[in-house]
Amino acid sequence: MKKTLLTTIGLLVMAAAGTAVYRFGFRKSIPQGEAPTQVAAILEQNGCYDCHSSKADLPAYSTLPVVSDMLKKHVDRGTKFFDLERADLENPSEVLLAMIEYTLQHDNMPITEYKMMHWGNGFNKEEKSLLAEWIKAKRAELYATGLASDDYKDLVIQVIPDSLPVDARKVALGRKMYNEKRISLDGSLSCATCHVVEQGGADPRGTRTSEGINGQFGGINAPTVFNAAFNVEQFWNGRAHTLADQAAGPPVNPVEMGDQTWELICERLSKDAALVAEFKAIYPEGLTEKTVTDAIGEYEKTLITPNDRLDQYLKGNAQALNASEQKGLQLFQDNTCATCHVGKSLGGQSFEYLGIFEDYFAAREQSQPDVKYNDDDKGLAGFTGKDADLHRFKVPTLRNLSKTAPYFHDGTMPTIEDAVKAMFRFELGREASEEETTSISAFLKALDGEIKP
Ligand code: HEC
Ligand code: HEC
Ligand code: HEC
Questions:
Q1: CA torsion sign, 63 to 69 to 75 to 78?
Q2: How far is the CA of 200 from the centre of ligand 2 (A)?
Q3: pLDDT (tens digit, 9 = 90+) per residue, 191-232?
Q4: How far is CA 423 from the centre of its chain?
Q5: Atom 17 in ligand 3: which residue has the minimum CA distance?
Q6: For atom 41 of ligand 2, which residue has the closest CA?
Q7: Is the CB of 116 under 6 A from ligand 1?
Q8: Predicted local distance difference test score (pLDDT) of residue 198
Q9: Which atom of ligand 2 is nearest to the CA of 238?
Q10: What is the pLDDT of residues 79-103, one digit of tens each?
Q11: 19, 185, 386, 411: which one has the fewest Cβ atoms less than 10 Å from its Cβ?
């Protein structure tokens, strides 16, 4: 009650101050120039930088007691959603385009309290059409696969292409290496042990984390290898840039394939003269760390999963999704899910904060005290060492979700429904309704694509 009163007073103070700001002519016109300059100016004029920038230069009224608390909370959440300091308006990420598009379509930013402060704020018609054009053009230039029907060609979700260009000989060799147990120190496991291509590309043993060499368990859940080719970076914390870089890691990881060096691995594999000859035929330098991982990376480019029922639907087959699944797709977009889970993979394009509205790790300690906080829980910060990256995880792909349980980086969500409910709670700040959970989960179960053996 007391808090409500204080908030009301705070809002009145802001509204009064807002009138003053408005009278002194806050809004400028859109400058001439290149699109990025214009976009930056529009976002600036509408106050987006006030709450979505880690270098926010807060207005003078922000020191008023109630207003200060309110603003701090908004800036904290705002920058967790997205930080314009990190945004590249020249080459905007698919996620940034999706976020700005969402606010255009839903007219929900800036938030209400702030609009009271700056009466003129909220995109006007001219600004809206300029931003919409920019988003459309950038998406077409940088991300669109052009495979969707006219109805869906500008959609934030993209259709997966049937194939990517590859060198077939390297693919064949890479497939062999992916299934090669001699890469592990004791000959007991291959990449395929934890990423089973016939079963969703993740670890079908269903444990929270994967069992590696000598019965050891790592600290993080194995994601699917399917569609990893579309990821901006590899691993939950992004520590590998390419698929080949990624493939160099597990073989020398003591809890995965063994406490060993690549020198040792190549020496072991080189005892197989036929294998060495196969490498020589394709790579002049023969069998080396670089060529083994290059071949595996090439093979992984074939592990993409086109033609799931969502993609059939987006290509124009209206019957491909049933009514509940279509409702789920709509709710998925309306509830900002698709601003983080974007593009071909419905994910993989950015590192997002886990726990925007509630401390995820505190809640986990309550509900699952046996799961101990470890370095893998730091997310991107575990790789970059930056505080601002703490608890930011690569947004996982949602394709083939029905086959990749359990979910989340820590594998603590046994079912799709659990994961969906947790997303509402921690990323959206509210409880999911029965219908939202059911329809969205139904939609997410329709994402099993084709895989060419
Ligand atoms: C007064 C602070 C404030 C300002 C100004 C502001 N935002 Fe936000 N924004 C937030 C907060 C807080 C959230 C977290 C969601 C919530 O609380 O509604 C958010 C969330 C978002 C999201 C995530 C999706 C969503 O809608 O929840 C987008 C996208 C967004 N803002 C875009 C913008 C844009 C574009 C502008 C400029 C027109 C802007 N915001 C101005 C505080 C602000
Ligand atoms: C013992 C189980 C295990 C083995 C063996 C294994 N992986 Fe993984 N893989 C994992 C785990 C766990 C992760 C997540 C690690 C992280 O993000 O820190 C992962 C992550 C990946 C990713 C990143 C996907 C993404 O979305 O970021 C790719 C790609 C991948 N593995 C491919 C391979 C390849 C190729 C091999 C063989 C050279 C291999 N893995 C061997 C368990 C395993
Ligand atoms: C602010 C960005 C963001 C938003 C918004 C968001 N997600 Fe997520 N989502 C993530 C991140 C980050 C993870 C990884 C969580 C983890 O590692 O523990 C994730 C994980 C998931 C997973 C588990 C996937 C897996 O393989 O582990 C599902 C399912 C999911 N989200 C669905 C949704 C749905 C449905 C919505 C909308 C209600 C949504 N997400 C909104 C960022 C987001």
A1: negative
A2: 13
A3: 999 999 999 999 999 999 999 999 999 999 999 999 999 999
A4: 13
A5: 409
A6: 191
A7: no
A8: 94
A9: 27
A10: 999 899 989 999 999 999 999 999 9
A11: 386
CA 331 to ligand 2 centroid distance, Å: 32
Query: Looking at residue 383, what is its pLDDT?
Result: 96
Measuring CA to CA, which residue among 129, 126, 155, 127 is closest to residue 140?
155
**Residue 221 C-alpha to ligand 2 middle, in angstroms?**
9
- In terms of Cβ atoms closer than 10 Å to its own Cβ (0-12, 13-18, 19+), residue 166 is middle
For 354-411, the pLDDT digits (tens) are: 999 999 999 999 999 999 999 999 999 999 999 999 999 999 999 999 999 999 999 9
CA of 351 to the centre of ligand 2 (A): 18
Distance separating the N- and C-terminal Cα atoms of the chain: 63
Q: Are 16 and 8 in contact (CB under 8 A)?
A: no
Among 246, 257, 289, 407, the mutation site with the greatest number of ligand 2 atoms within 8 A of its Cβ is 246
Region 69-75 average pLDDT: 82
Q: Are 177 and 296 in contact (CB under 8 A)?
A: yes
- pLDDT (average), residues 223-252: 97
What ligand has the least distance to the C-alpha of 351?
3
Residue 258 has pLDDT above 90, yes or no: yes
Contacts of 20-26 with CB under 8 Å at 24 or more apart are 21/117, 21/118, 22/118, 22/119, 22/120, 26/118, 26/120
The CA 78 to ligand 1 mean position distance, Å, reads: 5
Mean pLDDT for the stretch of residues 148-157: 96
- 119-137 burial code (b ≥16 CB/10 A, e <16): eebbbeeebbebbbebbee
Question: Which residue among 43, 45, 61, 111 is best mutated to probe the pocket of ligand 1, counting the most ligand atoms within 8 A of its Cβ?
Answer: 111
Distance 184 CA to ligand 2 centre (A): 14
The mean per-residue pLDDT over the stretch 36-55 comes to 89
| Nearest ligand for residue 294 CA | 2
- Which CA distances in Å does 433 have to 28, 91, 425? 42, 37, 11
The Cβ-side half-sphere exposure at 442, using a 13 Å CA radius, reads 17
Task: Specify whether the CB–CB gap between 231 and 297 falls below 8 A.
Answer: no
CA–centroid distance, 207 to ligand 2, in Å, is 15
pLDDT of residue 260: 97
Which of 235, 255, 290 has the most ligand 2 atoms within 8 A of CB, as the residue to mutate? 235
Ligand 1 closest atom vs CA 81: 23
By residue count, the chain amounts to: 453
